[in-house]
Amino acid sequence: MEHKYIADIADYEDKEITFHGWVYSKRSSGKIWFLMLRDGTGMTQCVVVKSEVAEEVFIIEPTLTQESSISVTGIVRKDDRSVGGFELTVKNIEVHQIAEEYPISPKEHGTAFLMDHRHLWLRSKKQHAILGIRNQVIKACRDFFEENGFTLIDTPIFTANACEGTSNLFNVEYFDRTAYLTQSGQLYGEAAAMAFGKIYCFGPTFRAEKSKTRRHLTEFWMIEPEMAYCNLEENMEWAERLVTFILERCLDRCKDQLKTLERDVSKLEAVSLPFPRITYDEAVDILKKHDVDFEYGSDFGGTDETIISEEFNSPVMIHRWPKEAKAFYMKRDAENDELALGVDMIAPEGYGEIVGGGQREDDLETLQSRIKEHGLPEAEFKWYFDLRRYGSVPHSGFGLGLERTVAWISGISHIRETIPFPRTISRLEP
Ligand code: ATP
Ligand code: MG
Predict the structure, then answer these.
(1) In the predicted model, what is the mean pLDDT of residues 363-372?
(2) Which of 170, 222, 261, 406 is the most exposed place for a label (fewest CB within 10 A)?
């Protein structure tokens, strides 16, 4: 391919080459001026010396505004003091467009302003680094499942039923009826697990989250494996192995991004297998120890999760929940019918819940009575009941929230920066 990228600059030492990119910054000192060029894959310093370029090239410096698009031709020179260890001695510059005054400058901007300019903010170093990590997390998930014999199954986005409760559903007009945007691919994942043994789905999910928190988006991406012949303990093993795989991959392949973000990687390196496992009751004891006023039976809130996570260096898995706190499809503990075989994984350092899952109820009659208890429309679950009619087996699965995982690895406190174009209660643009 003709097109050369700054990321590969080391391959072109002492060669003449053209990079296509945008002006990041520049500075001038009389007979020489310097330009930082970014091309999306990296940045390099371009040196323009009066005696080495045509007059018309040398004099364009004052007109080159931040983010102007240009192609720069020059010779790649090794220079240990330069960003990336190389720089470009310029021979020619071709201007494609002189940018209007760029709204994002190195000075501090408020978050609302930056979010309104998200389409431009993506070009900033920090945002570029976070989305680079997101890319690697996605790749790591796909590789993990591929290497472990899982089949990718795409589940529908329009659905007729609500599996995570009816309070945060998005309705969509669907010809002469109402459809919902999916909250989770799980129920379809269960069907696919009975066909393929081990599957995962990975797609956008939608929840009309009415509370504004730094951990909730209305549109987020979830990776959901589902395994036939799998109990809660084995499910937890899959979850910790997946998370460890993602982490190791990012530590290996995202060194530059983590450095840009000034992430304390020693905290990530401290994570090790097996992850601690505690029961819901033990988690409540931790809260009591810290004098937290907590109502037994409810879900843990963000601050509760932070307090619990601070007890551990690795993500902690909280299992065996009071049944009221979990969804209708969770299997009950054979030793205590009050407990659901659910598991949440809480990331260290206060990044909150990254995984939710559990063992599924596999008995037809129990499931039918649960649907009644929860007041869910039975007709919509007719096909789901079939899975318990035709070769029902113990099975489990979980959902890993992509954005929460990226926030933790990147060390970003607010989830809105971990997705290219976040959707929240108050944001539909850009
Ligand atoms: P929370 O209690 O934090 O709202 P949840 O119990 O509703 O989470 P699950 O239904 O178990 O979450 O979903 C599985 C995973 O999806 C969560 O562990 C989390 O990583 C992610 N997740 C859930 N809701 C959101 C959201 N609104 N925005 C981003 N990620 C989410
Ligand atoms: Mg929720």
Answers:
(1) 95
(2) 170
